[in-house]
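Q: My labmate handed me this sequence with no annotations at all. I'd like to see what the chain might look like in three dimensions before we decide whether it's worth expressing. Could you predict it?
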Amino acid sequence: MAKLHPVHLLGQQVRLGDLLRNYADLWQTALEKKKLLGILLLSFTLLGVVVGILNPKKYEAEVIIAIEDDDSSGWQNLLQQFGIDVGGNNPGGIFKGESLVQLFVTRTQVERTLLREAEFEPGRRELIANRFLKTSKLSEKEEFQGIQFGADRTQFTPLQDSLLFLMYKDITKRVLDVSKPDQKLSILHVNVKHQDKYFAKTLALETVRNTSDFYIELLTKKARNNLKILERESDSVRRMVNKNMLSSATQSDDYLNINQQVLKLDQNKNLVDLQINVSLYGELIKNVKLAEIGIRKETPLIQIVDLPQFPLEKAGFTWWQWGVIGFVVGSLFSFLYVAFQPSRPSGSASTATTANA
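A: Here is what I predict for the chain of 357 residues:
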């Protein structure tokens, strides 16, 4: 008969025969406690089903957006030849990848979105913050009873500021999720899960609108400032051109019948200034047009690929999935219960066999 060699387990020698006897003892204990174990499994399974039924159903609204990522500097070099610095699209790459994802869930952007007014059901408009507060556990706290928000943040009390901050923490923790599944593509997924399907859809859409507006405004801020300066300078030069033309015409009328050329000196000076200002005005107008083209070039394209539509997908586990989870947990507890039962003496089995003989 082949000899069973010992097995090294956790630094100790354990014989295969001992392992088999331990498994046999566990199985025997399980058979002896089968009624108790059956009740335990059934209880955990029913508990899981009850949790699934009582757990509020959540709806999932997802917006998929694609953001143009153009790092080409050719257009910037062309504008710089004319003395225009538009700053560049996404200067320094500060809003790429994960940094762009984090922009959607910053406190400033989430709070600005909460204070936007939106239409939920047809004909019913209200602030997103007030809608969220109705279904939030924060409204159950005594200090926050009866609080309503207005669109003007400057009129908020310290209590309203505190509540808005807690709402921001709650939303970013369990309601709003922004991700970029493929790091090579500039495609973002804005996902909202909430028991109010109207709120889920509205928050997803308004989050994209609010953050997109801020993103475009931020990336084109320098170019827009340059355009304003050029427009202001061109308006100033244009007024000077008009003034020179008027002065030249007036002096021409005054000196029409005078033969002394020295008296026309002021008129000639105005004509020289007029020519200079006309040339300067032409260059400024050209630069203004180039700056306008530059702003359109620098404005990132944010394309909505997919919008949430009713009926929304339901998020979370169904009641039968909760039942399966309860069954698995019950099986684990059953195994632990059997494993920690006091072991029977090794000679008990042989004694019982001898007595039966």
